Amino acid sequence: MAPSTGTLPPHEAAQAVLRNGYEHLTEPMLRTFAQNIYGALLLSAGGLLAILVGAGFPAIQEDNPGIQRLLQGAAFPVGLVMVYFVGAELFTGYPMWFTLTALQRKGTFMEYVNTAVASWVGNLLGTLFFSLMSTMATEAITQEPWRAAVVNQITEDIVEQQFHIILLRAIFCGWLVTVAMFLGTQNQDGISRALCLHFPFFISTVARFPHTVEYMYLVSTAMILGAPLSIWGFIWKVLLPVTLGNIIGGALFTGAYLALIHLPDGTPVGGAPNGSLLDSDE
Fold first, then answer.
1. Which of 43, 91, 172, 218 has minimal Cβ neighbours within 10 Å of its Cβ?
2. Rounded to an integer, what distance in angstroms lies between the CA atom of residue 245 and that of residue 197?
3. pLDDT (tens digit, 9 = 90+) per residue, 117-138?
């Protein structure tokens, strides 16, 4: 089949998102695990770029603090675009997918649990590995001003921030990043997909709304470089509120919306006569 071009109508894009969710729900756990390790490596590469670019002009940024955020916002989504284009995955997409599949009464409870755990653990392992590689192994960001910039950002965003603020910010991120994924599915050509994946995540990054995988990488990197955060603090102030917030944002503000507006009353997906989730040519 020739590659599609143009933009899908919203209801067809919602059906495609639902098909993706069902495929992820039923795929082998090892595949899910591998895709999410690889996705974490790619998103972390975007994070490394954001650190190098965002903190690389301290003289300019001293009088123009918004410059650093704009540069980070432009750089970090490169990781998300790479994830999407190579077929890797991130945990933050699953709340949207699984809300749609659950409302369609697809899958078993253990399929949801096993897939979510494999995704989250894969992302954590991938980010921790990349953190070690970009600091202790290669010393890519151990010099100033990059070391201080990472430590200061995490101190401000996490260490000195209240739990409920981190949670609320993570909800907004979960919403924006799943909107990005929906738009990436809706748009069929490479340039449009890249731009649509980029802009919602650009907003989230500039606003410093924490993304689960993004902050797995940034915070673990900052801890290695000397941020005043313990392992327990990493769990309590990062893994718990950011994961929970991203789940709420992706499930409620994107997944539930798509189901309510574009897939009402258990609308069959793909138009197959038996109501199958798969298209007739799949």
1. 172
2. 20
3. 999 999 999 999 999 999 999 9
Euclidean distance between CA atoms 214 and 276, whole angstroms: 35
208 within domain boundaries: no
Upper half-sphere CA count for residue 106 (Cβ side, 13 Å)? 24
State the Cα–Cα distance between residues 2 and 77, nearest whole angstrom: 28
Residue 248 CB burial class (10 angstroms; 0-12, 13-18, ≥19): middle
Residue 256 is given by DSSP the state H
| 216 domain-assigned | no
Closest CA to 192 of 184, 202, 204, 181: 184
Number of domains present in the structure of the chain? 1
In a domain? residue 243: no
Task: State which H helix or E strand residue 219 sits in.
Answer: helix 212-224
Could you give the CA distance from residue 59 to residue 140 in angstroms, rounded to a whole number?
21
**pLDDT of 277:** 40
Is the distance from CB of 47 to CB of 212 less than 8 angstroms? Answer: no
Range of the domain at 188: 10-148+174-201+250-263
Q: What is the pLDDT of residues 20-34, one digit of tens each?
A: 999 999 999 999 999
Q: Is 136 exposed, middle or buried (0-12, 13-18, 19+ CB in 10 A)?
A: exposed
